[in-house]
Amino acid sequence: KQWYQRRVAITAGMDGGTFTVSNGGVFGSLYGTPIINLPQSAILGMHAIQDRPVARGGQVVIRPMMYIALTYDHRLIDGREAVTFLRRIKAAVEDPAILLLDI
Fold first, then answer.
1. Is 74 a catalytic residue?
2. Helix H segments across the chain?
3. What is the pLDDT of residue 12?
4. What angle do CA 50, 56, 62 make, to 5 degrees?
């Protein structure tokens, strides 16, 4: 089969797929890898915000940090799009005006 025929067969089986957001942070989860279950296309795991040491301008400073993890079906979502999505989530969490003003 040609690659596009395989893609059509795969996506036909994923009809009704969903995207899930899991917030383990409310239970104190610091980090984890969410697992997708069919027919999920992807799941975003958000974890607890905690103060952590980070390097800024050659100095170690304390900043609130939250880990996020995205698990996705590579048959449906390419890595570039997934990373772009994660960067947009990061930007929105750091500056909520992005969501409010649709920047």
1. yes
2. 3-13, 79-94, 97-101
3. 54
4. 25
Q: Report long-range pairs for 75-82 (Cβ below 8 Å, ≥24 apart).
A: 75/7, 75/10, 75/11, 75/14, 76/10, 76/11, 76/14, 76/17, 76/41, 77/41, 77/42, 82/42
Dihedral of CA 30/84/58/96: which sign?
Answer: negative
Amino acid at residue number 21: V
- How many percent of the chain have pLDDT more than 90? 36
Rounded to whole angstroms, the Cα distance separating 100 from 103 reads 8
Is pTM, for the whole model, over 0.85?
no
Give the angle 83-17-41 at the CA atoms, nearest 5°.
25
Q: Select which of 73, 78, 95, 102 is catalytic.
A: 78
Alpha-carbon distance of 2 to 94, in angstroms, equals: 43
Distance in angstroms (rounded) separating the CA atoms of residues 89 and 99: 10
Catalytic residue chosen out of the listed positions 15, 51, 74, 102:
74
Spatial contact of 47 and 67, defined as CB atoms under 8 Å apart: yes
